[in-house]
């Protein structure tokens, strides 16, 4: 067997192990997405019990806490997996999911909900560790295809999760079976229990069918940086990459795009659930779950079927710009929805958002990879810096959206409930303008 065909650790994984890893990752994302349709409603219920009025800020905090915890603790789990192996860290994450998703469903104060969401993020370092597992057991020829498994599991989980979260919320209002039970007292417990059960199922699968990917001798020979050193190195890499002309410009484009896109995460349901007399749509948890499932499906179709032919015809940089404009257009349109033909309107809006995002994300990665090779930078350092900056955008976005919503929703005139969505559009426009600073010649063009 030549070197190109060997995994980096010398350990190969059978199809069964890869299927288990796919399921573990998908169930992680189901657990993440399952709370999206009802999180705003849960905050409103708990805020009313505690006489709290800053709904938008608390929605932003709960949205951000999960991403912030992952950002802070993923390096710790990655380092731990280098020392004790990937398998036990993946299983610790699944145990954490089981406990803290149930805790979230049982939350009776906003602080308890925030703590449960943060702790779920702390223990859910599984995506990074799953990627490391794939790297351990894959040869260079297998790596891209097997990494695609993680992306597919990510997209599928994010499609299924919101749908289940919406359909299973407030079950006592929909099915008599749940009347006068704990599910009437805690209307969002059922989807959280489902997420916990799925995590237990993954844990059993991993225990039985997932072999360790990192041999003992590989673990003992690895040196692990402290959390502080890891963060310092990350900040240094980001600063260095932002200082470069093309790569730095593209990283700012991606940061602005992700910032604008995640502002929407906090305010979308705040708008759709708002009473129609105030300008909203009066949607239920199930309605919102269906919308996010539709966004997931359209995203999968875009990345699975459209991105290849469009990129070959127009080039990655053009597709990146087009995706930015399309996403921005859809986000700005959200608060101008009307109850007349509302689902046709939602199809148009979510189509723009999902297709635009589905075009932007892979195009951004493609251009960044090509620029790194073109300018002779280490790809790992470039991608790591990009991911760190994007993580910061995912933390900043929901907080900004929640704050802007809170200070404008009761107003009339130029600054009102439309404003948060205008902020999304403004950030997308800045990303689009900045993209023209990127000088990029596609590899196929340089060979001609």
Description of the molecule:
The protein is mainly alpha-helical and 448 residues long. The protein has helices spanning 15-33, 36-49, 55-84, 86-105, 110-123, 126-137, 140-168, 182-185, 189-209, 216-220, 227-242, 246-272, 285-314, 316-333, 342-374, 379-408, 419-434, 443-446. It contains 18 helices and no strands. The chain starts with 14 loop residues before the first helix and ends with a helix.
Number of domains: 2
**Anisotropy-based shape:** globular
Please name the CATH architecture of the largest domain. Up-down Bundle
How many individual β-strands? 0
- Rg value: 22 Å
Largest sheet: none
Number of helical elements: 18
Q: What is the C-level CATH assignment of the largest domain?
A: Mainly Alpha
Residue windows where pLDDT falls under 50 for at least 5 positions: 444-448
- Overall pLDDT confidence: 84
Order of helices and strands: HHHHHHHHHHHHHHHHHH
Can you tell me the CATH superfamily of the largest domain? MFS general substrate transporter like domains
First and last CA, distance: 35 Å
Give the class from helix and strand content and strand pairing. Answer: mainly alpha
Task: Give the oligomeric state of the chains in this entry, treating copies of one chain as homo and distinct chains as hetero.
Answer: single chain
- Strand content is under 5%
Write the layout of secondary structure elements.
Blueprint lengths: L14 H19 L2 H14 L5 H30 L1 H20 L4 H14 L2 H12 L2 H29 L13 H4 L3 H21 L6 H5 L6 H16 L3 H27 L12 H30 L1 H18 L8 H33 L4 H30 L10 H16 L8 H4 L2
Helix pairs in contact: 1-6, 1-7, 1-9, 2-3, 2-13, 3-4, 3-5, 3-6, 3-12, 3-16, 4-5, 4-6, 4-9, 6-7, 7-13, 11-16, 12-14, 12-15, 12-16, 12-17, 13-14, 13-15, 14-15, 14-17, 16-17
